[in-house]
Amino acid sequence: MAQRIDVKKVADITIATTLDMKLNDDLSIQEWGEQLVALFDDDACKKLLVSFERVLFMSSSALRALITLNKKVKEVGAHLVLCGIDDNIMEAFRITRLDGIFHIKRNEDDGIRAFEQ
Amino acid sequence: MNLESQNLESQIWIWTKEGAFSSDMGTVHALIEEVIGAVRAEHWTDRDMFALELTLEETLTNAVKHGNHSDPGKRVCFAFKLCPDKICVRIEDEGEGFDPYALADPREPENQMIPSGRGVLLIKHFATSVKWNEQGNVVEFEKYRTS
Questions:
Q1: Which position among A7, B8, B27, B102 has the lowest Cβ density within 10 Å, counted as fewest Cβ atoms?
Q2: What are the b/e assignments for A85-99, b being 16+ CB within 10 Å?
Q3: Residue B11: band (very low, low, confident or very high) from pLDDT cuts 50, 70, 90
Q4: What is residue B107's DSSP assignment?
């Protein structure tokens, strides 16, 4: 399985940076979603920041994977923040009103601060 | 030939492509790359390119996965016609079709956590115009260059 996220820790926050520039093919989306969900195998993972700073394109299949991730977040009682979303992709979030479901910040620093509020 | 057809045929197309392929997502992405390459040569904006690519992605994915259920024995027919300021796209699958106006609205609170249903919403937003035939197995859309 190819590595789809780069993971680091800042204090108690797990930061997962999406590595693919395009999230549109089934295999990469499936692996990306599975690798994000697997972060919760570690019980200590309660704050997850997913960065999209490298991503330039996302299909509705990737949005679907995010909704699945959000369900997992709620199951384990964790908190999820998204950051670094390109303006074009952000328009897709707004049209589908997913911007009202997800906590979205402009960049990684703002995302980290969001957990402190 | 009706008036609409005459207008279409009187356009000066700078690039056209039509054909058919067996239901396979690998072919979908190769085809999208080819179309995007042709349109990018006309210097469309990044926003227009994103809108076109997403509309192609969603319509072709619908044809392969939801129309033909990824059955390699079923084919997807396509036609692309590009002039400098717009592209016309026609995609037909061999499925039973669907009613794009009867889908549950994923923006409604009760549907927001349902994973599916957002592709058609994105198509309607990012295409300049879009229409399906009565059966719902043929989609035609236009995307205009905005600047």
A1: B102
A2: bbebbebbbebbbbb
A3: confident
A4: T
Mean pLDDT value across residues B121-125: 96
- Say yes or no for a CB contact (<8 Å) between A70 and B122: no
Residue keyed to tokens 């570690």: A42
C-beta of residue B139 within 8 angstroms of C-beta of residue B91: yes
B 103-142 → A contacts, CB under 8 A: 106-107, 112-116, 118-119, 121-122, 125
The stretch B79-104 carries a mean pLDDT of 94
CB contacts of A88 in chain B (<8 Å) are: 46-47, 50-51
Is B23 in contact with B68 (CB distance < 8 Å)?
yes
Averaged pLDDT for residues B70-88:
96
CATH 3.30.530.20 correct for A5-116: no
